[in-house]
Amino acid sequence: MHSASALGDFCKEFKGRLATKIIHADLDLLKPLVVEDGINLKIIHLVRDPRGAASSRINYLNGYYPRNAAKARPFFPNLGRLKPLGLLDDIPEYMLPIEEINDNNPTVQGLCQWIRENTKRSSDPLPPWLQGRYHLVIYEDFAKAPLTEANKIYNFIGMPLKPELKKFVHGMTHSNSSDTSLFSTSKDAHKTANKWMKYLTVMEERQILKECLDVLQLLGYEPNYTKILPES
């Protein structure tokens, strides 16, 4: 559904408030909905530390596509896991049969380029069509203070954060559930946000830093120099 006309038709089918999730949509794709269709659009842009995103994707591909991942595994000792799994820059031929690899450009290089082109910090001047319509949410900020960030989101869309919603947010982000599956919707958000620190190797962190240092700085993340950079 990543076309302006399809999104416009989708929105016009509904009356009242409608929320939909779009993965890696460009802001320019959404512009016609406001400028041409006159839709009262609010954009909540969720971004995550590229290191956390990469770590999650490694886990996902190994868990859900074991046959493809098995072809990549012999390259792990020398190259790390990102490049052989098609998550760093180029996508190896043996990973191409995975449809979402082609659809969503899951590479670190592609992710960071998308963030560069589409992320607006509070200090950035917004174009007229986007003013009052864009709210950036940093995943790790939400993980640290879910209710604070949820309040900001609801203030942005002009709706009250009701007690039952506060209870729901707290329950979804402070779970002690034994369900550790990748797509479990109830987790300890803070642990999940920082899991990459133990999961990524030094080599993999260096690879991400090389591609995304400016993005880490843009989003306010601290590059782990003491671990990543070689000793002088």
Automatic annotation (TrEMBL):
Source organism, top-level taxon: Eukaryota
GO biological process: N-acetylglucosamine metabolic process; sulfur compound metabolic process
Domain Sulfotransferase: 24-206
InterPro entries associated with the record: Gal/GlcNAc/GalNAc_ST (IPR051135), P-loop_NTPase (IPR027417), Sulfotransferase_dom (IPR000863)
Pfam family membership, one: Sulfotransfer_1
Family matches, as Gene3D superfamilies: P-loop containing nucleotide triphosphate hydrolases
GO molecular function list: N-acetylglucosamine 6-O-sulfotransferase activity
Name used for this protein in its record: Sulfotransferase domain-containing protein
Source organism per UniProt: Strongylocentrotus purpuratus (Purple sea urchin)
Lineage: Eukaryota, Metazoa, Echinodermata, Eleutherozoa, Echinozoa
